[in-house]
Design goal:
The complex is a heterodimer of chains A (267) and B (354). Chain A is mainly α and 267 residues long. Chain A is 69% helix and 0% strand. Chain B contains 14 helices and two strands. Chain B is globular. The model of chain B has no long low-confidence stretch (mean pLDDT 92). Classes of the chains: A mainly alpha (267), B mainly alpha (354). Chains A and B meet through helix 1 and helix 14 of A and helix 4, helix 5 and helix 10 of B.
């Protein structure tokens, strides 16, 4: 987990810089078909939004305008990975997801028939990845290869923790937007969500349910910490309401006194 | 105890004649009896300034004007210091209400044409005060060094760059460096905590001095004949205190129920010069100017038109003199003023939703 956070932070800085000077996008945007498509898709990707640049996955030198340098294998450039290599390609950052995936039936099929087996980009796309929700498990996506019923059961198994994570996130946002720092809670929710989401890649419902039982106490602890902060907000508002009453009384007394004085003056 | 206090007061009063001064400025200072709510806004504005100075001094005890520690120091103040969040919220929210009350004060002065002879100097000092209060808001916005403050300051200071010939030098002068950096934070901090508040204090003194020398304008105009007058204290003062309580109610509701007005999500994360947020807009009171610049095809033309508008407003007392005018002129005047105010509000709303 720590490694993901540190990598994300480092990539956001490097990627942010690369966004300003990225020869990959400049060149590929002018191309058609498979060579141009990724450059047009990329701005819609959650990776792009989080400041990750082409070279963070594909290597090479994004600062150079010379394709011989920018895409030189000596500079670490890897073009489109072979299907069998995709899990390790994405797993450079998403280690735990890769480890879960490698235990799945999808991974077993990848070894047997790499061209037909689903790898990371089959569901997540290569350059249009979005922030993952359970909606990614749907009949249209899963039904391309097999019957949806099993995937639907897996989705249901995940729904409880997913809803709870969303509910806790909404409470955390509320507290955060009222000016109370929630850095630790944000990190903890991020960790719980990642732990839960990566489990979906195992594809075995009983294993998922067992693992989720271990994740839940972490979510409960975050929820308890957020409850304390919500109480602080409630107390503040109570004090604010008391002040409000005092100010109302003050205003009424002032205007009543003014009216009485004016009445006396005119009389 | 009471006898001691009385003796001390008499001792001081014999030497400084304080009771004479108080009598002359309070109970013997007569003001028109028909002064309305709009005339109390000056008192509300002075209250805003006092609140900003007091809360600003408290914030200064914890704030660190260093780009690597500014955000952290503000977070510490808001989350660790007892009632630090309240002090910060009062300071930030009052800055908005300060500008709002100032806009209303100016609009009512224009509507009542209270700037005319002999109050031209009072108007000019008020216009300079407007500039200083806006500068205080702009400089204070950067200090927390959040994503919002960094990028809003970048956008706002960029606008100066569209002025021909001197634009780039002006941006450099404002920022201290080509981009918003530690040097910008340093000079904004110095301006915000010393140069601007001191200038505001002096200008408020001058503005009030002019007020005493020329007298408060009479609602409806002096030309309608003599009006009944009442002592400033207590008659007018209690009314002004009532308006201050009204202001405090509004401040309270905004702080406790709508804190996001001040602190949207981008204001709660540290500045990242490498990552531009999706929708950065200036303060609400610069939104009309911002939207106007977007509508005019040339940025240069947009800036020039706004400068001309500012000059017209500044010299209004010399354009709309105190001489009697025809009913047609008066109707035209109110039509132009009314449309200008509506246009300004319309641009502001448009800028918000654009």
């Amino acid at each position: 987990m720590m490694r993901i956070l540190v990598t994300a932070l480092a990539l956001s800085v490097v990627g942010g810089a690369a966004r300003g000077q990225n020869s990959c996008l400049a060149c590929h945007r002018q191309q058609e078909g498979d060579r141009g498509g990724p450059a047009h898709d990329w701005p819609t990707s959650v990776h792009f939004v989080n400041g990750i640049g082409c070279q963070d996955c594909h290597g090479g030198d994004a600062r150079s305008d010379d394709p011989q340098i920018a895409m030189n294998p000596k500079n670490g450039f890897v073009g489109r990975p072979a299907p069998r290599d995709v899990p390790n390609f994405c797993g450079k950052c998403h280690e735990a997801v890769r480890d879960n995936y490698l235990q799945s039936a999808h991974a077993a099929m990848l070894q047997a028939d790499p061209a037909a087996a689903p790898n990371c980009v089959t569901c997540h796309t290569a350059h249009k990845q979005q922030k993952v929700t359970l909606d990614l498990i749907n009949e249209r996506t899963c039904g391309r290869c097999h019957d949806y019923a099993r995937a639907a059961r897996l989705k249901e198994a995940m729904r409880g923790i997913e809803n709870d994570v969303q509910a806790v996130t909404a409470r955390e946002r509320h507290v955060f937007l009222h000016g109370i720092a929630t850095d630790d809670e944000q990190k903890a929710i991020f960790a719980v969500r990642n732990q839960a989401h990566r489990l979906t890649h195992v594809l075995e419902i009983q294993r998922i349910l067992g693992a989720l039982d271990k994740v839940r106490p972490d979510l409960d602890r975050v929820e308890a910490r957020i409850s304390v902060k919500e109480k602080v907000l409630e107390d503040r508002r109570r004090e604010g309401n008391a002040l409000l009453v005092l100010f109302f009384i003050g205003m009424i007394v002032a205007y009543a006194t003014h009216k009485r004085l004016m009445h006396t003056a005119s009389g | 105890m009471k006898r001691l206090v009385t003796s001390v007061w008499r001792w001081i009063d014999t030497r400084l004649k304080l009771s004479d001064i108080l009598r002359a400025t309070l109970t013997e200072y007569m003001v028109p009896a028909n002064l309305n709510f709009w005339h109390t806004l000056g008192f509300v504005l002075v209250t805003c300034f006092v609140i900003q100075v007091v809360t600003g001094m408290l914030l200064l005890m914890y704030y660190v004007p260093d780009t690597s520690r500014a955000f952290e120091s503000v977070q510490y103040l808001s989350n660790e210091v007892p009632y630090g969040w309240l002090v910060r919220n009062i300071h930030a929210m009052t800055s908005h209400l300060f500008v709002l009350a100032l806009f209303l004060h100016i609009a009512s002065t224009v509507w009542m044409r209270a700037y005319r002879n002999p109050r031209e100097l009072q108007w000019l000092s008020g216009m300079i005060l407007l500039g200083l209060v806006l500068a205080a808001g702009l400089s204070g916005y950067l200090l927390p060094w959040s994503q919002l403050s960094y990028w809003a300051t970048t956008v706002a200071t960029n606008a100066a760059g569209s002025i021909p010939v001197v634009g780039d030098d002006l941006v450099l002068w404002i920022r201290g460096t080509p981009k918003v950096t530690q040097f910008t934070l340093g000079r904004f901090f110095a301006a915000h905590v010393s140069i601007i508040p001191f200038s505001i204090l002096v200008l408020i003194g001058i503005h009030l001095l002019f007020l005493r020398l020329t007298g408060i304008s009479v609602p409806g105009g002096e030309e309608r004949g003599p009006v009944r007058r009442v002592p400033f204290f207590p008659h007018m003062v209690v009314k002004e205190i009532g308006s201050v309580f009204g202001f405090l109610i509004l401040l309270n509701v905004l702080i406790f129920y709508f804190p996001q007005i001040n602190f949207p999500a981008d204001a709660l994360i540290p500045a990242n010069p490498l990552e531009t947020p999706a929708h950065i807009k200036p303060h609400w009171y610069f939104l009309a100017n911002y939207q106007f610049l977007k509508l005019v095809p040339s940025e240069f033309l947009g800036v020039i038109l706004q400068v001309v508008g500012g000059i017209i407003l500044f010299f209004l007392p010399f354009l709309d003199t105190g001489k009697r005018r025809s009913p047609l002129y008066n109707r035209l005047f109110y039509a132009v003023v009314g449309l200008s105010i509506l246009g300004y509000i319309g641009l502001m709303v448009w800028g918000y939703y654009s």
